[in-house]
Amino acid sequence: MTYEALITMIGQYGYVALFFALWLGIVGMPVPDEGIVMTGGAVTASGLLLPIPAFLLTYLGVVSGLTLGYVIGRWIGTPALNRMRRKKKLALYVDKSERLVARYGSYALAISYFLPVVRHIIPYLVGLNKMSFRRYALISYSTGFVWTLLFFTLGYVAGDHVPQLALLVQRYGLQLLWLPAIALIVYIIIRIWKKQRRLLTKGRLDS
């Protein structure tokens, strides 16, 4: 499915299309999750959908799709993981996911959101390791909210440039997050500098 086809599907089925498009990410939909979420933001900017219901359906699509992976891992376990290992492309991501879980434990769930493909495998692993659903939901759903809000907002701002931006995110993953972090720091510094400059100017005028 191309971005054009995704836009057409959203135009036909509205909010529900965003929800189910994210479920298709579980089976390897060509458009990455980040692209779908950003597309949701872009179509609200264009006026095709309302922002709040579009965001909520997008968020629910993200967390419910990943929760399905957790449930399968917890109740089916090793057979599901072995099936992924038999696929050469997925085997590398399985190994990477296992290393993340070994190093960071349950917090690998939060990190995985910013790593394409890995985000779908780690819920299997933590389910397989019998993580309680309460702990899974606490970490995954809170991180999922932040992740969805981030990319939804990026899509709202990017508009027609979503496909190019999604490609960059898919290629660089977690590393790309340094860009908005640096931009935020620069913005805060400029705000502080301007505020201090205004205070100095006002002080000179008063004197």
Automatic annotation (TrEMBL):
Membrane-spanning parts: 12-32, 52-77, 136-156, 176-193
Keywords assigned by UniProt, alphabetized: Membrane, Transmembrane, Transmembrane helix
Residue ranges occupied by any VTT domain in the UniProt entry: 31-156
InterPro entries referenced in this protein's UniProt entry, alphabetically: DedA_domain, VTT_dom
A Pfam family that the UniProt record links to this protein: VTT_dom
Sequence similarity: Belongs to the DedA family.
PANTHER family for the chain: ALKALINE PHOSPHATASE LIKE PROTEIN
Name under which the protein is recorded: DedA family protein
Biological source species: Paenibacillus baimaensis
